[in-house]
């Protein structure tokens, strides 16, 4: 591009045509190459685009170079599509240096250093399904922020530092939106909230998915009201007012087609949760035998069967989804164990396994909820924490493991298309899940070694 000179003449005023060198600054910044050229004409194409009369160390040159890189790519819609979907890097721009040979190495090294200082990379893990329509949303972010986005087991954003920073916030916000949409769809399959004008009860209207999900969450958390767009929805009275009219609300669980396990005790139509003591029979004998083989020094105090229609329905909905996504994979593992503390029991019985109160003690294979084939692991005091009477608690569970990946420390999100993480791919004994509906607590066992 140029060498330092006391004159303001054209950059190639005293250029020796035999010392033209091409510098390729690839988007993959690990790759920098120089090529010699004996043709001064080869440099004219670039000089028609870049006429630089300042010193090589001027950072503005590098800003212009990176501007060229991203501006040129904006016109390549097909290339954008390839980058987002397959993660292929392009070749960047070609820079031709016109300089004395003794100054060339310094010039290239300076440009390389300045070039790299302007660029950065950010990686974002994700655990949502990226459909084609969702990929298009990511491409919009790429165009808007003039960055490159590559997708593999994580989303990688590459480009100029301020642009990458803004793009990262946009991608994170978009992933949160995708996750909320998935959750809303799952809740809608389980429960549908509706409303009607009390003067026209036949005119039943369904709440949109977002409001439906918020109402169901508020209901499960026993909240009395929910404020939505300046409207107070009274969950206790199942009413709200809009423009002087009074409306009534209905909550309908989609449980009529869901068959409950044969082992469950009878439940009323409106009975959603029932905790049933198990004192004998095959269920009791099976758990008792497991304790005798693996925990001979412990005695079982109580065994309770958890009959939760809402949890079970959500588990079955997710199971059908996993089966559709992974037709040739073992989806479910029964008889896995999860140790817990007394303070989490009520929440697990009512709402299932949530990372906020079930995934605090173990992180070796990811920051999720842990289940194990080995009851001795879950019976350890670190996981089934003794209360002040030295009584411990452990759940026997069914878990939707689906397609598994190797877990590791600091894993917060699964790679795309995977459903759980494990300690060993070939012979897994520990499973880590990241979705609240992915496990069902079949039995709660209270036990002690006293």
How many β strands by DSSP? Answer: 21
Mean pLDDT rating: 78
Distance between the termini: 82 Å
> Main sheet, how many strands, which sense, barrel?
5 strands, antiparallel
> What percentage of the residues does DSSP assign to strands (E)?
25-35%
Number of helices: 12
Helix content: 25-40%
Structural class: alpha+beta
Quaternary status: single chain
**Shape summary:** flat
Q: Rg from C-alpha positions?
A: 31 Å
Indicate the low-confidence ranges by residue numbers: 1-60, 72-82, 85-91
How would you write the strand order of the largest sheet?
A: 13-14-21-17-15
EC number: 2.4.2.-
Enzyme class: transferase
Keywords: Glycosyltransferase, NAD, Nucleus, Transferase
InterPro entries: Mono-ARTD/PARP, Poly(ADP-ribose)pol_cat_dom, WWE_dom_sf
List keywords for this structure.
450 residues, flat, alpha+beta, 12 helices, 27% strand, five-stranded antiparallel sheet
Brief summary:
Helices cover 34% and strands 27% of the residues.
Provide structural commentary.
- The protein is of the alpha+beta class.
- Helix content is 34%, strand content 27%.
- The protein has twelve helices and 21 strands.
- It has helices at 41-47, 59-74, 77-86, 101-117, 132-145, 161-190, 209-220, 282-294, 309-325, 342-351, 355-358, 375-378, and strands spanning 20-25, 32-37, 93-98, 119-125, 148-151, 154-160, 191-197, 205-206, 225-228, 231-234, 239-242, 245-253, 273-277, 299-308, 332-340, 369-372, 392-400, 404-406, 420-422, 430-433, 439-448.
- The strands form six sheets. A five-stranded antiparallel sheet has the order 13-14-21-17-15. The protein has a four-stranded antiparallel sheet with strand order 8-7-12-11.
- Helix 6 crosses helix 9 (309-325).
- The chain starts with 19 loop residues before the first strand and ends with a strand.
